[in-house]
Design a protein that fits this description.
The protein is mostly helical and 408 residues long. Helix content is 76%, strand content 0%. The chain has helices spanning 2-39, 42-49, 53-66, 71-83, 88-100, 103-112, 115-139, 142-153, 166-171, 173-207, 210-216, 229-246, 250-262, 267-275, 281-291, 293-320, 342-364, 379-407.
Length: 408
Amino acid sequence: MQDFLSQWGEAAYTTAGFFWMALWAFALGYVISSGIQVFVTEKRMQKTMGKEESKGLLLGTFFGFISSSCSFAALASTKSLFKKGASFVSSIAFLLASTNLVIELGIIISIFLGWQFVVGEYVGGIILILISWLLIRLINPKKLIKKARERLDSEDDDEADPDKSWKKKMKSETGWAKVSQQYAMEWKMVWKDVTIGFTIAGIVAAFVPDSFFQTLFINSGQGNADLGFFTILEHIIVGPVAAFITFIGSMGNIPLAALLFGKGVSFAGVMAFIFSDLVVFPILRINAKYYGWKMSFFILFLLFASLIGASLALHYGFNLLNLLPDPSSVKIMDTEYFKINYTFWLNMIFLAISGYMLYLGFFKRDDVMFMKEMAPKSQVLEKTLKYIAFICYAWLAAGLVLKFLING
């Protein structure tokens, strides 16, 4: 019993430490993302993208990169762009870029996994887009695309606010009040995922033995550096399965990805795990609601095939250049999370910025309303996640008390 209580305290402390390490990165990423989402409108993006495929592919990727957001916001924006006339290729490019070429995700990955995974995230995101483009060209699903457009055209069209100059918006207090509201909305969208994801990472770090991961990911373990093709492929396929089981978005999954890598899972398997936020059931269901089930399954096939190809390309490309990261370099069980260092001061700065943004958006300028369209979530799932998140808070609070009682 004493060992269990000690591990419980260690799990809670590790979770709190993970979040403390990442807090400033979340805040910085969401400030940038919120500003871009307010100042660069979907109408302006669609006009610039046009209907030409090659131009739309490049611009869809660029606009997705600068519009980085959570999966549910990305799905809604993609649907809106496709409905307003953007090509299917450019819409998929936008979707993949806005969920993989993500500013805040790159910062979090750099904290937990290191620069090789950041490079892998961004290069892999581009490879995902290129493979998807090639598959769409080869398969040429004209009938599916036509039916999807007809389905969207039957909906009522909600036109956004007038497309004012982004320079004028940036100079106005109203524009920044909208940014503040979007910033709060970003946190509202991810708090459950982040809470559950970081809690699971702490529990896994403290309770789950290495043998479990060696069974799930064959031939894994820090002693097995030279993995064969079929072992790498198994890791890539199991990665999305593990992501589906955790049911958490990519931001909440990064500490768990670091744990997987530290336990000896291959670079390719960890990258596949990170790339998997668009191949889980809630995303499949939302795409079906937008475009119909046939198109939804086609998008699932497209993204999963691209994920496998991108992960393989990254692994063998990095291996060829002798850039594969060393699992021993991931120090996930750091016991000095809360010392006074750059993380402490960055957290203080961004907590102050967050406080001012909440004051501006919800008190000083509470007359301003900004609501960005979101993909429809399952109410049952959202309530379930909310209750699980509250259970996580109770677990963490009790665990932290145990940590300090046992150590005290």
